[in-house]
Amino acid sequence: MERERTGEACCADGAEGLAFDVFARACPSRGTLEHVTGKWGSLTLGALYESTLRFNQLRRRVDGVSEKMLSQTLHALERDGLVHREAQPTNPPRVDYRLTPLGHAVADRLLALINLVEERMPEVLTAQQRYDETRAPGGETPSGRGVAPGRGGR
What we know:
There is one protein chain. This protein is mainly α. The protein has helices spanning about 30-35, 40-50, 55-60, 65-80, 100-120, 120-135; strands at about 55, 85-90, 95-100. The chain is built from 6 helices and 3 strands. A 3-stranded antiparallel β-sheet has the order 1-3-2. Mean pLDDT is about 85; it is low at about 145-154.
């Protein structure tokens, strides 16, 4: 965060010691950031933070995720080195998921953000209500001028 972000191309070969810039279009860090900060990725990392879970335990913990989406999310997080998948040779097969040390480091920071959002939700709800009250039905602002769709009235 100390260096200026230019948005210019960054290294793509993954060599250690080379700079990555998530603001650069071709930077591979963008994909990982997307996996971590997407709805299902962040909830999956948060759910695995305190314990190892089996697939169905994880699916119950991350309420609303489909089996297909959870599977895709776990594959992406495993590929990024954030989640470890361990298949037990039992009948029926047992598969456990846990965070790697890197996954724990990422989840630490992610959970801090989650906790902040949860703690400040009363302020968010008040702001949303205030925002909604300033807009009359039909896209009219209190001044009577229409709001262009998708432009937030700017």
